[in-house]
Sequence to fold (374 residues):
Amino acid sequence: MKNIVLFLCTLILKACSSPQTPVNKNNESIYLIVGSYSDGTASGLSVYDFNTQTGDFDYISDVKDIINPSYLEVSPNEQFIYSVSETTNGAVNSFSFDKLTGTLSRINYQFTEGADPCYITINKEASFIVTANYNGGNISVFPLHKDGCIKPLSQNINMNQHPENIQSHIHTVVFSPDEQFLFATDLGRDEIYTFDVQKLNREDFLYRNSRHTTYLKSGSGPRHLAFHPNGYFLYCINELSGTIAVMNYEGGILSVIQYIESDTTPGCGNKGSADIHLTPDGNYLYSSNRLKTDGIAIFSVNPEDGTLTRIGYQETGVHPRNFIIAPNGKFLLCANRDSNTIQIFEINPKTGLLNNTSKEIEVDKPVCLKWINR
Fold:
């Protein structure tokens, strides 16, 4: 513990070791930011140039002096990147991003006062970031300076205060499309909490709305959330049951209308479903599954009620923890933690099925992917 604290304290304002020459820009290029599990000696953050038309890529830069940046968030103006440090003494980190050179420079960090933060989100005004602390069972709120610097913790919401004494494991924090609410998944208690977002003359940024807790089936293990582009449907990938919960969303209230299997492996026991995303047009949904049958389940989306129909399954490398879809909807990139690759799949726009391009980015333990425009 002390070593981790001392290590983090040495990191303020260190520049990453990377080339400083300008990167050529074109309309097809986009930056791919990769977060990896790292002990601080291997690359924790990596930057690549990705061609959204061909699927080709080039390495640009990396940052090594950061521990376990397992989830990332990009500021709305794309000038800053925020990451967690997923450790027992959890922290959040801020970096400035130079679009000209594709390089990152550290700004500062703060402790989350919760163990193993595994998700981070930012509001559209870029005034607050919020983290989900998995083994801490708490939610941490930090105000932000306009220069990207993270201010000290302003709110620490402990979700372990339950009479049933069931351990909370907060896995995701996601704002509603209008940012009037924030939803937090509790994998330990099979619940999705609703928080009112306070914007005017309030001491606290979040306020627990106990009337609108969403209860999922026992043993679900809610993990990640994805809103449909139309804002009316919300999808939850359940890690332990290997299912997806389809929900209607209106005015901060969620109502489950469908459960459908993501992981159909017979006799799998504890499932390992991980991530969930939709294509930009909202026609198809994908969910990743780990442990026994590593791969991505593929679903078509009913535009009328948001319900899902399973249409395919794409095998992947080992332990597909996270994946991302290109902004133009042409490619799906899958981060395989245990085979140390990011696979590049092409999406068939007519069927939603995936074609393995056989192009792979080799990187140690990739677990989070984000885009930044050029």
In short: The mean pLDDT is 91. The chain is about 0% helix and 50% strand. Residues 93 and 109 are 4 Å apart (CA to CA).
